[in-house]
Write a structure and sequence with these properties.
Blueprint lengths: L14 H4 L9 H12 L5 H28 L7 H10 L9 H8 L2 H7 L2 E3 L3 E3 L1
Antiparallel strand pairs: 1-2
Helix pairs in contact: 2-3
Organism: Serilophus lunatus (silver-breasted broadbill)
Subcellular location: Chromosome; Nucleus
Protein name: CENPT protein
């Protein structure tokens, strides 16, 4: 007796498997703008490539350190205290230079309002 030939099932490709996952990156324009602001001069293209690599390595190390601090404290969430501890270990925050002073010096007003608690009328503290 003859058996019916059945087609072999073809595995479906998902769109996600075709794309390679990418690491999130900070935009070149932002890095150039920030670096030019603090250097107070324009940046050459070849120098900008090196600054981009350094920025990427810095933020990877920063996030690894913050993750380690949160894990050490038994948490899965990075908190403000972890960031302050990291900045203290890097020498950015000291007894003479608290975190609030750095925030006031380097961030615009809309970010200051979010990060520094402010007492308002009615005995309320924002945020």
């Amino acid at each position: 007796p003859l058996q019916e030939l059945q087609p072999k099932p073809i595995p479906k490709r998902s769109r996600m498997s075709q794309r390679k996952p990418r690491d999130p990156q900070i935009s070149r324009s932002l890095i150039k703008e920030v670096f030019s602001h603090f250097a107070k001069m324009p940046v050459a293209k070849d120098a900008l490539k090196i600054v981009e690599k350094c920025t990427e390595k810095y933020f990877k190390q920063l996030s690894n350190d913050l993750e380690a601090y949160a894990n050490h404290a038994g948490r899965k969430t990075v908190k403000m205290a972890d960031l302050e501890l990291l900045m203290r270990r890097q020498g950015l925050v000291t007894d003479k230079m608290p975190l609030h002073v750095l925030i006031e010096r380097h961030l615009p007003m809309e970010y200051r309002k979010l990060l520094i608690p402010v007492a308002v009328s009615g005995n309320k503290v924002i945020p």
